[in-house]
Amino acid sequence: MLTKLPPPREKGVDIAAWLASLGLGEYAPAFRDNDIDFELLPKLTTEDLTALGIRSVGHRRKLLSAISALAENSSAQPGSTLSTREEFAQDATDDDVAAPRAERRQLTVMFVDLVGSTALSQRLDPEDMREVILSYQQAVSREIARYEGRVAKLMGDGVLAYFGWPRAHEDDAERAVRAGLAAATATGRLGGPGGVPLAARVGIATGLVVVGDLVGEGAAQEEAVVGDTPNLAARLQAVAEPDSIVVAEATQRLVAGLFTATDLGERDLKGFTAPVRCWRIVGETAAESRFEARHAVLTPLVGRHEELAFLAERWHRATSGQGQVLLLTGEAGIGKSRLLAALAAQVAAGPRSVLRYFCSAHYTNSALHPLISHLERAAGFVGDDNADTRFDKLATLLTGIGAEAGEALPLLATLLSIDASGRYRPPKLPAPALRARTLAALTRLVEASATNAPVLVLVEDAHWIDPTTAEWLEALVERLSDLPVLLVVTARPEFEPRWRALSCVDTLQLGRLEPCDGTAIMERVAGGKKLPRDIADRILANTEGVPLFVEELTKTVLDSDLLVEAGDRYLAIGPLPAIAIPSTLQDSLMARLDRLSPVKETAQIAACIGRVFRHRLLAAVSGAGRGRLDDALSQLEQAELLFRSGAAPEATYTFKHALVCDTAYQSLLRSRRQQIHAKIASALEAEFADVAETEPETVAQHYTIGGLVAEAASWWLKAGQRAMTKSANREAAAHFGKGLELVVTLPASEARLRKELSLWTAMGSALISTKGWGDPEVLHSFSKARELAERLGDKTQLFAAVRGESACRTISGHLRAANALANQCLTLGMELAHASGDSGYMLEAHHQLWGVNFYLGNYKTSGVHASQGMAIYDYEKHRHLAWGYTGHDPGVCCRSFSAQMLCICGKPDRGVQQSREAVALAERGSHPVSLAQAQMALSVVHLMRREPHDGRLWAEKAIAVCTEFAMPLLLGQARVFFGWALGGLGQLDEGIRQMRDGIAAIAATGADMGLAYYLCALARACGERGEASEGLALLEQAFDTLAKSGSSYQLPELLSAKGELLSRLDQGDDAIEGSFRQSLAAAREQGARLAELRAALRLARLWSDRGRESEARDLLAPAYAAFNEGFGTSDLVEAKSLLQKFSHHPAAQP
Known about the structure:
This protein is an alpha/beta fold and 1150 residues long. The chain has seven domains: 15-91, Transcription Factor, Ets-1 (DNA polymerase, domain 1, Orthogonal Bundle), CATH 1.10.150; 103-284, Nucleotide cyclase, GGDEF domain (Alpha-Beta Plaits, 2-Layer Sandwich); 303-509, P-loop containing nucleotide triphosphate hydrolases (Rossmann fold); 515-566; 585-668, Winged helix-like DNA-binding domain superfamily/Winged helix DNA-binding domain (Arc Repressor Mutant, subunit A), CATH 1.10.10.10; 892-1009, Tetratricopeptide repeat domain (Serine Threonine Protein Phosphatase 5, Tetratricopeptide repeat), CATH 1.25.40; 1017-1144, Serine Threonine Protein Phosphatase 5, Tetratricopeptide repeat, CATH 1.25.40. It is built from 51 helices and 18 strands. Strands 1, 2, 3, 4, 5, 6, 7 and 8 form an eight-stranded mixed beta sheet that branches. Strands 10-11-12-9-13 form a five-stranded parallel beta sheet, sandwiched between helices. Helix 23 packs across helix 24 (615-622), helix 34 (795-811) packs antiparallel against helix 35 (815-836) and helix 47 (1051-1064) packs parallel to helix 49. The termini are far apart. The model is unreliable at 1-13, 72-99 and 217-221 (pLDDT under 50).
């Protein structure tokens, strides 16, 4: 319900005061000019209010409700009145009325001080001084009210005023400066003692404040403003000279271009630790419009070429004598004025006339202000022109355009208030007749201009047009059909003139720009430099194609400490925080909400839910009745702040602008936001199971901001777990991280430790995919989890932590520690499996053991555990394990490892078969990490078999998966296999580059697993390219890697590769033979039959070349005979060929 207000008919309270109490004081002149008295007030209709110039739907509704409430009060309590401020305040606290809430908002504060008041008070009688002070206060207050400021406090010789509260305007800083200039002038007109004029000094500051808390009691009650801004305004006033205005830098930025100002430099102000830069306002600039003031240099037109072509075509028609009228509409900042400037620039290039009329929010009730201003500019009036000069200039203007000066000159001189006594006879006409003839004369001026050349008439910002100018415009529209005139009227969407429906009128609505156009604007503002992609994307998302928003938000980012210049671009210097709403937009955005002040709180609550929100959720959180809520949403929808989809109560609403949503949200006090977010979270959990299930991070976020830490931590855990099931591991890690940040703030308890333990374990699993198993953060997560699990005696969680830590130590090359943990895992697994009947524990224990033994080079032991894993694994029962523990499917993993072991141990065909089974299983499970693992296993099996074409195919597939799902460790491995395959296909340069990059990427994750083998493959490729010495250096790194980790994984291959490289360098038979013999011994010890065959083959060739064919045959034959499959692979084909050669050419014994 609306606050019960003082009846306007009450003695001492007029309509202006009544409107001001509603926050609608700007309409007082319209009520006065149209003779709306107390008796007519209850009879006003919506149409009447529209005719009065009240175009805001919210304001019309507010007025009608207030009028209705007055009628009810009058009928219910005949004769009753509220005559005192105390009674009014008491009535306003009725239970049906929500108490005003304090808000965070940008506010411009003005402090006016009467110069020399102390000395004056010593010279004057107190009663005389009282009259001086009252006159001064009234004069200043009138000017403040004229620009719709709010007098916050009268302090004798000081006046404190707010611009932007309780209702914001898009130009509050400008209004404050205009009011300050007017207040100083008005004070100067007051006569002091002895006829000496009084003087005032003014300070103005703009900044973020908290405003709206009521302090004091009874008649002393006022709205308090908390923040530096009021103090700064008061200090700036002290800097000002008499009859001058000093503003802070923030205010100067907002009015730059509108007023000329002198930089006073930095001043030390009392109460402020840092010097404050101050500016003295000199006066208004000569700019014709706000757009011109803000854009002294026109920038290239972006994204409006089709619209400009449309306007140019209409201009072409006009030049042929077909009068054209175009209504150009679009929201604030969409680029209407910039488009007109481009059109005017085209038209002005020829013998044309351009007539421009600017409507202003400051003169919506000043009759014909746009036309008066145009005439003054066109005639060339300057400030110190006397009446005769002005009259002569006006006469010259009329003569120049061929107008009939006889009747027009006195009419227009009267309109311009030129008092040139004796130069003309003022029309002696009744007011209605004078008005009609003046409007006709103004229309004839346009017609006269069109007789000389085609005319472009621009009427800008018609949503602020005064009623008399609107009448002139309507008459002009009806006269243009046969004149060479193009009339373009710009307005915001709410402007609905009657003439819009005429057949001669076209309408063009400007839409939002495409993202590419927004990017072009950003780069222009940034001086041609590119912004970081994530920052550019954030700006585009927040500004949504509104050019002004793009410009101002880009400027805000460039002025921040977020970026540094680097050549042709900017680079971010850290994580991207939330981008603040530019101060240049805050007033404009807040004004949109304040126009609907009765329902603004609904918008604020909705903004806490998010830019998109459900009707049912808003109803649950707001506590408003269905009718009241629907009415509020309807008003927001009609004002185009919201878009609706569907019908209530299942409707979904979207804020039209992200920045409007942000403004509504940021205007709430943090304490109020916290209350609302807590309600939202509770409602989601209790009543919206679908959202809670599919978007647990939304619930978590609301609980977090709502200050309910324990609940928030639990929901962040749920959010991370759900993200992992979607393979969104980066998001999962972020969710777990937020949970951990919160949980440590809880009081120490077992419940807290358990929650923290769950989060650390889950964090480890998530980080495996995003950073790799060897990353220190992963190890830290599992180590922390193990510590907590041991402390709590929780064996289930201890199993997960030990399992994870063992995997990390395996990948990072700490194999002995990893093996000890793996065996502890097996012990725990047996105990847990026995107690719970869950075979998954044993499966994961074997999982860790086949991995660590594989990299230790214990292939047989690894094979045993892999076989047991395959025997246990059941897809339906165990596929969920892919999203837990170490983040991949154990069924896929055991087949992938088994495939490599089979190949190493002399079963290359079965290795391919087993690996293909792993791929098929991974594809069935749709788990990216498992799929990439399986694809890489198949790639390396083919590379072991020396089949580079197939190796390349599967490595490419793995690279695609790893890239899509951002898996750095696996991507590095896949690139090594890809480069290895390229080398095998003869593309050595690219192959070596890919392998080097892959190895570097692996090392960057902290991983050591398989690194020696990858270095071996790179060393062989270098040897193939004629860089055997480089290859040997790489092998030395590989041997060091194995020694540090205690591994013998693929040791026979490293030793064999060393022999190959030594032979390329012709290092002597003993060294070469020694390497191959070492390779043979290591291979036999490991049961690595493929490596044994390769070493035997190379040594047999060496001996054969030295005439030792018998020894060569005796060495190679048993190695070849150990195989019962894989006879189509290159190594076996070469071995068979060499053995056949030996059988045909028996060698002599040495």
